[in-house]
Design brief:
Purple Acid Phosphatase, chain A, domain 2; alpha/beta; 5-stranded mixed β-sheet; 14% strand; 9 helices; 251 residues
Length: 251
């Protein structure tokens, strides 16, 4: 069956969850597309291996592979370009886990800070291989096919305050990567948008037509679908097949 798109949520360094989910997909062919929604690193213990796998994946499958930029990739690029201690130092962001992954060290314990020899590398991002930095800089902000529009976070509002811009119309890409706008999931009407970034447990459960009794599950609204089910943060990884609507999970 050609023309399928499989969109996969935020991985956050959880290589095992990624492998479990991918092992459940049907055999892919040249007509298929796999879209990853961004946030491949931080929090989970194996960020380096996740990125290495995704970088090699296009040469190992017949399907088209699309790896979108997430706010965590964008955050690290800001660190590399001008520094951003407010991003790398807070423990919940999970940046130390990424550094440890690239250094081959055990992941940090909860609330553990950087060691003396790690702090400068963490603040400057100098542990990333050049080829990984180049790969992150090339990650697209959005993708679109006949089934949906795919972004990491959401769409920006029209300046007039009514409606939302298509990603191609957004002069600033910040909303595509960073926004958490409840109005978007409640009010957007247009071509279906699939996004990660905001954990589904924080989306209005009464609007979801997919297992609304399970706040941690895939979230399906009238025109938007949220697929960040907290992988790397104690949750699991979710994938969605279009146009069939079949759901895949790592749990």
């Amino acid at each position: 069956m050609a023309g399928r798109t499989f969109v996969i949520g935020d991985i956050h360094g959880d290589l095992e969850a990624l492998f479990r989910l991918l092992s459940g997909l049907p055999e892919l062919d040249e007509g298929d597309t796999v879209v990853f929604s961004g946030d491949y690193l931080d929090r989970g213990p194996r960020s380096a291996e996740v990125i290495d796998y995704l970088r090699k994946l296009p040469s190992q499958t017949k399907a088209k592979i699309v790896t979108l930029r997430g706010n965590h990739e964008d955050g690290w690029l800001r660190v590399l370009d001008k520094g951003w201690p407010e991003f790398v130092l807070p423990q919940p962001n999970g940046c130390l886990a990424t550094l440890r992954s690239y250094l081959g060290r055990p992941p940090p314990a909860e609330d553990e800070g950087a060691a003396d020899d790690e702090l400068r590398m963490l603040l400057e991002g100098t542990f990333f291989p050049d080829e990984v930095v180049a790969w992150m800089r090339e990650l697209p902000y959005w993708y679109e096919d006949e089934h949906a529009i795919y972004v990491h976070a959401g769409l920006p509002k029209n300046k007039e305050g009514e409606g939302y811009l298509h990603p191609s119309e957004a002069k600033s890409k910040l909303a595509l990567l960073w926004c958490r706008d409840e109005d978007f999931v409640r009010e957007y009407r247009g071509k279906r948008v699939i996004f990660g970034h905001t954990s589904t447990r924080y989306l209005p459960p009464e609007l979801s037509s997919y297992t609304p009794s399970d706040a941690d599950d895939l979230w399906v609204g009238p025109c938007v679908i949220g697929i960040d089910t907290r992988c790397g943060k104690g949750g699991f990884l979710t994938g969605l097949e279009l146009p069939s609507g079949r759901v895949y999970e790592s749990r």
